[in-house]
């Protein structure tokens, strides 16, 4: 909440200056004094006069009133109408969804300037026309944000409980749904206001907005263009006012986003008692307990040569709405850790130590029938090879429908319809036709999207994604990651991301676990680990990432086999900092907010 203080103070200062313009001892902003045109300074006019002798300071403050009035009015109208349409579309679906969402898509197809020209041509320029244009421009954003949030909220238990009590729909929407989606809508409103200030100035500059002699920053910039050589400061002042306003509003938008963003788990630490009193439900309470808590997980496999441990003493925790990445070279034990948590280990492997709790329930101690109910339901997994994960003899739509029917009692027809909707949701074009296709008829990116559709079919609270972008090109990889992030934002899902790509980790994850040779060697927030890695293996992984023209540094050697772990530190044979002290097995030590498994981390960090 402290992050809001500074940007909110800046925006409040701007609003106060604009509101106080009529009572401040300023000259009339429209009174002309041609004898003093382009004067750089006069008594009572510290910023000088414009091309008609009008006071620049007065016009800037009165221009702020015009610009901000248009921006707030248009954003408020767009917010009111768009939120209402989004509520109706997300709650009632069907025709309401089609009309609201498709209408928003149609508006988005029009370039803003062309739409403004069309409306101005029909209605003529003026403040009222400008508010109408901006309201139409920002309406789709509110519709889409509200629609997505309502879809997420309507399936929550607290909404179902109110419905079970027989509450009327208007009361459910106003008391249960709307307060819980107010955060994202508020962020969207702040973004719309900031953008509207820029668009208003641009349209007024083009003669499509505020009509002279009403002061406006856009009109001031337009008038100063002809006198740039004689009086360059006349152009500077409105540009500075516009820049300062936009920067202040952008800072406020960023702070609001960080406060209400469900993914920012580490940022939201304290209860917001005063906001709960003023706007109950604006900031949904976050459960302090982790969604998934893995402690001391060890997996053993009996081989003719003896017992091997591909996973040893692995611990991590994932909270709802956050992303934890597990990184390391092939053979480090990342995927086996995930399959152990899911209860999908092959018969030769077994968990011999540790616990894995999901929402407080011990996954490892559950009977198989209970685990089966969780898999594909509350917990879902996306495997790294979609071609081998999809059944080649069944159509992809049937496989998605099967995932639905495995956890819900719905008819085959209803499951097929929902499967098509899911394929559409994950961005597959022509989902009706693609649902009838076999896996080999789809591209790698499409098959991966099908796997994600199957994983999210039953609205999981935890998604484990094992190399979801392996063998995909960069554009498809970005689309897949954006899709997972979008689903996470909508549903507050916890995500465990297993990947080799540190670039992906830096982009989407909050915490990272670095594994090497079956063990966790470093764990902490992505920002801290990437900025100051403590373990030599983490440093080596980061150095191996291509960075501009710099030549990446390879890591000599390979990850040892589980039946041939070296004594002591398992990275020592490949480590340039190995010393005699590394001959004993290092423990996982606390290093501030992080954990590191290295006996020399203190001297290497220094």
Describe this entry's structure for a reader.
By secondary structure, this protein is an alpha/beta fold. 50% of the residues lie in helices and 13% in strands. It has helices spanning 5-19, 56-92, 94-109, 112-123, 127-153, 157-164, 169-205, 217-225, 232-260, 273-278, 334-342, 368-374, 386-389, 396-405, 412-425, 431-435, 444-456, 474-491, 502-508, 526-531, 536-543, 601-605; strands at 292-303, 306-318, 323-327, 349-358, 361-362, 379-382, 462-466, 494-499, 511-516, 519-525, 589-591, 594-596. An eight-stranded mixed sheet has the order 6-7-8-3-9-10-12-11, with helices on both faces. α7 (169-205) runs parallel beside α8. It is globular and about 100 Å long. The two termini are 34 Å apart.
Essential attributes:
single chain, 606 residues, alpha/beta, MetI-like fold, Rossmann fold, 3 domains, eight-stranded mixed beta sheet, four-stranded antiparallel beta sheet, 12 strands, globular
Quick take:
With about 600 residues, the chain is of the alpha/beta class. Helices cover about 50% and strands about 15% of the residues.
């Amino acid at each position: 909440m402290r992050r809001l203080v500074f940007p909110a103070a800046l925006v409040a200062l701007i609003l106060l200056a604009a509101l106080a313009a009529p009572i401040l001892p300023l000259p009339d902003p429209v009174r002309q004094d041609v004898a003093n045109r382009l004067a750089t300074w006069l008594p009572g006019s510290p910023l000088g006069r414009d091309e008609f002798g009008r006071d620049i300071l007065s016009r800037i403050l009165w221009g702020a009133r015009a610009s901000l009035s248009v921006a707030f009015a248009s954003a408020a109208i767009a917010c009111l109408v768009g939120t209402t349409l989004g509520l109706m579309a997300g709650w009632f679906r069907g025709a309401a969804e089609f009309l609201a969402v498709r209408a928003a898509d149609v508006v988005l197809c029009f370039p803003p300037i062309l739409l403004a020209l069309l409306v101005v041509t029909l209605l003529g320029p003026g403040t009222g026309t400008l508010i109408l244009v901006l309201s139409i421009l920002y309406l789709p954003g509110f519709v889409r944000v509200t629609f997505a949030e309502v879809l997420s909220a309507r399936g929550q238990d607290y909404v179902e409980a109110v419905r079970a009590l027989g509450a009327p729909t208007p009361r459910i929407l106003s008391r249960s749904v709307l307060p819980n989606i107010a955060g994202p809508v508020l962020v969207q409103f702040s973004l719309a206001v900031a953008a509207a200030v820029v668009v208003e100035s641009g349209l007024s500059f083009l003669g499509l907005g505020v009509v002279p002699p009403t002061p406006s920053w856009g009109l001031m910039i337009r008038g100063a263009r002809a006198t740039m050589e004689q009086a360059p400061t006349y152009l500077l002042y409105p540009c500075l006012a516009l820049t300062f306003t936009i920067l202040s509003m952008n800072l406020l938008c960023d702070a609001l986003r960080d406060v209400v963003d469900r993914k920012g788990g580490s940022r939201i630490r304290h209860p917001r008692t005063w906001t709960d009193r003023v706007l109950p439900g604006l900031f949904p309470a976050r459960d302090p307990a982790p969604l998934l808590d893995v402690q001391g997980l060890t997996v053993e496999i009996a081989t003719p040569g003896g017992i091997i441990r591909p996973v040893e003493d692995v611990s991590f925790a994932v909270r709802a709405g956050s992303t934890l990445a597990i990184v390391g070279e092939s053979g480090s034990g990342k995927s086996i850790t995930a399959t152990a948590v899911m209860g999908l280990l092959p018969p030769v492997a077994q968990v011999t130590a540790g616990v894995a709790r999901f929402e407080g329930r011990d996954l490892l101690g559950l009977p198989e029938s209970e685990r089966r109910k969780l898999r594909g339901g509350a917990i879902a997994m996306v495997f790294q090879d979609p071609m081998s994960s999809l059944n080649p003899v069944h159509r992809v739509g049937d496989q998605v429908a099967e995932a639905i029917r495995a956890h819900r009692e719905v008819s085959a027809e209803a499951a097929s319809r929902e499967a098509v909707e899911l394929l559409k949701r994950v961005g597959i074009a022509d989902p009706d036709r693609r649902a009838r296709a076999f896996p080999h008829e789809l591209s790698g990116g499409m098959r991966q999207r099908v796997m994600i559709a199957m994983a999210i079919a039953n609205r999981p609270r935890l998604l484990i994604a094992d190399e979801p972008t392996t063998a995909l090109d960069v554009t498809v990889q970005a689309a897949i990651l954006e899709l997972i992030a979008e689903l996470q934002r909508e549903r507050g899902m916890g995500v465990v991301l297993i990947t080799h790509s540190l670039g992906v980790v830096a982009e989407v994850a909050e915490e990272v676990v670095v594994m090497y040779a079956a063990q966790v060697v470093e764990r902490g927030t992505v920002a801290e680990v990437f900025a100051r890695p403590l373990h030599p293996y983490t440093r080596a992984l980061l150095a191996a990432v291509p960075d501009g023209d710099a030549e990446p540094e390879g890591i000599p050697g390979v990850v040892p086999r589980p039946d041939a772990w070296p004594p002591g530190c398992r990275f020592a044979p490949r480590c340039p900092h190995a010393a005699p002290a590394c001959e004993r097995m290092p423990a996982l030590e606390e290093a501030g907010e992080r954990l590191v498994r290295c006996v020399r981390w203190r001297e290497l960090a220094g």
